[in-house]
C-alpha cells in the first residue's frame, strides 16, 4: 500500500508526458484524479493504523543495492503517518487550484508537481536512510523547476538560491549518512542503512557532535531556523501559488521531521548539548519572524515570515524533549500545513484577480467577497491559534512542553502568541476591513465553486483537528514516546537539571515514558565533559 | 476561611448541561448557513429563541443544583498528551449557576432588544451569528470544568468582541477598535497561559496531573506560597486584560465602536465579567496568597477611582458608561482582593442588570436621536422618551448606590469588606468610598444633561426624536425591575458553600458614608447641571470649574494621555524596530552574508563556477562525482 501511495503520482507524471502538449484540461483532470486516488488510498493508512505500537507499519522491504546494504525499506509510524496524509491531502487541492493559477505549460507543471509529491511521500516513508536521502534529493529538482519556470519576476534568483542553499546542507548530510553506515560496518561487521539498526549504534560523543551538526545544518536550512531563513521569503514570493502551498505546507516540515526522525534519536548526546543553542535560535526566530512579518507590504512575504515564526514554535517543541512538546510540534506541523497552505491559496485567489500581492492595493474586500473574507477569517484564526481550531492544540502543547523544559524560552515564546495576533489581525484588517478604496476591487468576484471545493475540506479539517484531536494524538503517542526514549537513553542527567529550574525534583514521572527500559539502559554519560 | 474540599461536595452527573452551550451554537450555525436564505424575519426569532432555550436549561440546572453541590456533564475527551488529560466537561455549581442565569437571562433580553435596534441594518444575519457565538463562548467559559476549557471560552469571547466591535468594518476606526480589543486581550492571555503552565507543572511535581478546578482545589495546599503567588499574579494579568483593569483597560472604552446592544453584552452579561469569574473560580489559590490578594485589591481600588475621574468630564454618552464599567469592575476586584468573593460576584450580577439597562437605554436614546452620541447636543428627552427616561433613572439610581436599589447592596457589601475584612484596610475603603461619590456625580451629570433641561440638538434631529419601539422598551422595563429588586437576590447566601459566611461588622460611619457621598454626588450634579444651564461657555458652575482647573480638565478629557503614552512607548518603537530588523538586519546583514558567501565561492573557486549557471544537469553531475569520491573514501 505504501509503495502504491509513493509511486502513483510518479507513474501519473510520466503518463502525462504521453499526452498531447496542449491537452491542458485533460492533464489537469488526470493529475487531479490520480492525486485524489492517492489520497483515498492513503486514508487506508489512517484507518488501518495500530496506535498501540511504535513499530513501523505497512512495511515493505526489498534489497536494492545489496553490495552497500542499501534497501528499499518503507513503512509508516505515528510520526510519519500524518505527514504522509498531509501531503496526499494537500496535493489534490493544489492541483485543483491550477485550473486558474497556471496558464502556460500546464502539462509540464503537473509533471513536476506529481514527481514532487512522490518525493515528499517517499521522504516521509523511507526507513532506509539512503533511500530517504534519494527521495530528499528527488524533491529538490521539481521544486526548482516549479519556481524557476512558473515563478514571478525574480524566479531564477529565487530558484537558484533555494536549490543551492538546500544542496549545501544536504551534501553534508550525505557525508554523515555514509559515515553512519561505515560505523555500523566497523561495529557489527555489516554495511546497512536501516535506520532501526543505526539507532542502536554506540557513537562516541565527539563523533556525534560532528554528525549531528551535519544533519542539523541540513534540516535547519529546510525548517528554516533563524538565521538560515532568507531563502524562504524569496522562494515564496517568486513561487507560483501551488509551489508556495507545498513549500510551506509540506517541504518545511521535512526539516522538523528530519530532526525528530534522525538527528535527535541518532545522536542523543549531541542533541542534548545543542539544546541551548537551538532553543535560543528558535525563540529568536519566533519573535523575529513575527516582528518582520509585521512590516511586510507584500502578502506572500508576510506569510513567509510568519512561517519562520511558526516553525520556531515547532523547533522549540521538538527540543523540549518531553511528550507534550514533541506531540505539539508534530501537531503544529500538520496545523501549519493546513493554515499556511490555505493562506497561500487565499493570496492566490486575490492575486489571480488583481495581479498584485501588495497589501496596500486591497482593503474593504468583505463587501465584494464575503465568502473569501469568511474563509480568510477562519484561516487567520487557525493561524493565530484560536481554541477550537487546529492551531491551538499544537501551540498549546508546544508551549506547555517548552515551559517545563526551559521556562525562559517558554515565557519568550508566549510573547510570540501575542505578536502572531498582531501581524495577522493587521493583515486582515488592511485587506478585508475598511472602506473599499481601489476602484478595481469593486469588480472582484467572490470564490467560485471550484475555489470553494478547495477551501471547504481545509476548513473542515481545521475544525476537526481543533475540536477532536484524539484520533490524531492517540496515533502519534507510541512512536513519539519511543523516539523520546531514544533521545533520553543516554542523557538522564540533563533532564533533571532542566526540571530543577522550575523548582521541583520529582521529575521523571512527568515524562510519562519509561526511560529505564532495560534493554536500552546505558550508564548516564557526563555531558559536561563532552560539551 | 474554610473551604470544603472537592471530595465532600455532592456531585451529580447529568447530561443536559451541554444543551446550555449547544443551543446558542446551533443559532450560530443556523445563521451562518441558513440565515441568508431565510432572512431577517426568521433570524429575528431563531437567535433570541436559542438563547431562551439555553436560559430554560440553565434554569433547570440552577433549580436542580443540590444544596452546596454541583452538576457535572462530561461530553468527550479532548486533548490527551502524556500526563495531560483534558476533557470537554461542564460543571454547574453555585458560582457558575449564578453566572449562567445572568448570561442567558440578560443575554436574552439583549437579543430581543437587538431585533428592534438592528431593524434597519442590512447585515442583521451576521450580527446575530456573532451575538449567538458570543453567548456560546461566554457560557463555555463559565461552565468549563477545567482551566483549559475556560480558556477556550476566554479566547472565544475575545474573538467575538473583535468581530462585534468592528462590526461596521467599513469604518477603519471601528475595525481598529476591534483589533485593539483583541490584541490587548491577547497580552492578558499570555499571562493566563503562563499561569496555567506554572500551575500544571508545579502540581505535577507533586504527582497531581490535572487542570480540573475541583482537583486543583483539593491539592492546592501542597504548593509553596511563592509559587501560588506567582500563579495568581499571572492569572491576574489575564483577568486584568479581559476585565479591563489598569494597565490593560484601554480597549474597553474604544469597544463602544460596536452596535450599542453589543456594548451592553460586553459590559454587562459577558466578556468583562470573565476576569472576575476567573478569580472567583480560583479563589482557593488566591486565598493562599496574601500578596496576590493585595495586588488584586489595590489594582481594583485604584482602577475604580481612576476610571471614575475620567468619566467625570466625558461628553459621549457611551464613553461615560464605558469608563463607569471600568470603574465598577474595579469595585468587583476590590471585593475579590479583600477576600469577599461572594460580594464581588454579587456585584457582577447587580451590575449586569443596571449596566445592561443603562447601555440599552443609551442605545434607545441614540436610536431616537438619529445616531447622535454627544450629550452636549441632547437634553429634554424625558418628555419625548418617557419609558427610556424612567428606566434610565432607575439604572442611574442603582449604580449610584441609592438606598434599597440593587447597586446599594452589592457595592456596600464590597466596601464593608474592604474596611473590615482581614485582608482589607481603611485606605482601600476610602478610595472606594470616594469613587462611590464620583460615580453618583458623573452618572447624574449624564442623566440630567440628557433627559432634563432644554433640548440642544439641531431642529432637524429634534423633530424626529421618538420613543423606541416596544421590542426595545420591554427589555428596558424588565431590566429596570431587576435593577430595583436585584439586591434581594441572596447571592452571597447562595455562594456560601464556596466562600463561607463571613460578614464584617463595621461602624455606622463606615457603613453609611458611601451612601451619603453618593447622595451628595447626585446633589452636586443637580446643582451644576440643572440649576446652571449645562454646556454654555462662560456660564455655570461646571464651566467655571473647568476653566479654573483647565490643566486637570484637559488631563481628564484626554484620559490621562494613556493611549498616547502606549502609542509612543510601545506601538511606534515596535513598528520602527520591526522595520529596521527587516530592512537592515534581514535584507542587508543576513541575506548579505548568504549571497556574499555564494559570491566569494564563485569568485575563488573555478571548479564551483558552473554552480552559478543554474544548469541543474551540470550540478547533478558534479554532485554525483562528489558523492562517489566520498563514498569511495569511506568504503575502500
Give the percentage of residues in beta strands of chain A. under 5%
Radius of gyration of chain A, whole Å:
22 Å
Spans of chain B with pLDDT under 50 lasting ≥5 residues? 1-7
Shape of chain B: globular
Q: N- to C-terminal separation of chain B?
A: 80 Å
Low-confidence stretches of chain A: 491-531
Q: Structural class from helices and strands of chain A?
A: mainly alpha
How is this structure best described in words?
- The complex is a heterodimer of chains A (531) and B (636).
- By secondary structure, chain A is mainly alpha-helical.
- Helices cover 73% and strands 3% of the residues of chain A.
- Chain A has helices spanning 2-18, 24-47, 81-101, 106-125, 129-150, 155-188, 195-199, 205-222, 231-238, 241-266, 268-294, 299-318, 323-354, 365-368, 370-383, 390-405, 407-432, 449-467, 470-488, 492-500, 527-530; strands at 57-65, 70-76.
- Chain A starts with a helix and ends with a helix.
- Mean pLDDT of chain A is 86; it is low at 491-531.
- Chain B is mainly alpha-helical.
- Chain B has helices spanning 17-33, 35-64, 94-117, 124-143, 147-165, 172-204, 213-219, 225-242, 251-254, 260-269, 273-281, 283-286, 290-311, 317-337, 341-368, 386-399, 406-420, 426-451, 459-464, 470-485, 491-499, 508-531, 541-548, 550-557, 562-604, 616-635, and strands at residues 11-13, 70-81, 84-92.
- In chain B, strands 1-2-3 form a three-stranded mixed β-sheet.
- In chain B, β2 and β3 (84-92) form a beta hairpin.
- Mean pLDDT of chain B is 87; it is low at 1-7.
- The chains are: A mainly alpha (531), B mainly alpha (636).
- At the A-B interface, α5, α6, α11, α13 and α16 of A face β2, α5, α6, α25 and α26 of B.
SSE blueprint and pairings:
The complex is a heterodimer of chains A (531) and B (636).
Chain A: H1 2-18, H2 24-47, E1 57-65, E2 70-76, H3 81-101, H4 106-125, H5 129-150, H6 155-188, H7 195-199, H8 205-222, H9 231-238, H10 241-266, H11 268-294, H12 299-318, H13 323-354, H14 365-368, H15 370-383, H16 390-405, H17 407-432, H18 449-467, H19 470-488, H20 492-500, H21 527-530
Antiparallel strand pairs in A: 1-2
Helix pairs in contact in A: 1-2, 1-4, 2-3, 2-4, 3-4, 3-10, 3-13, 3-18, 4-5, 4-10, 5-6, 6-8, 6-9, 8-10, 8-11, 9-12, 10-11, 10-12, 10-13, 10-19, 11-12, 11-17, 12-13, 12-16, 12-17, 13-15, 13-16, 13-18, 13-19, 15-17, 16-17, 16-18
Chain B: E1 11-13, H1 17-33, H2 35-64, E2 70-81, E3 84-92, H3 94-117, H4 124-143, H5 147-165, H6 172-204, H7 213-219, H8 225-242, H9 251-254, H10 260-269, H11 273-281, H12 283-286, H13 290-311, H14 317-337, H15 341-368, H16 386-399, H17 406-420, H18 426-451, H19 459-464, H20 470-485, H21 491-499, H22 508-531, H23 541-548, H24 550-557, H25 562-604, H26 616-635
Parallel strand pairs in B: 1-2
Antiparallel strand pairs in B: 2-3
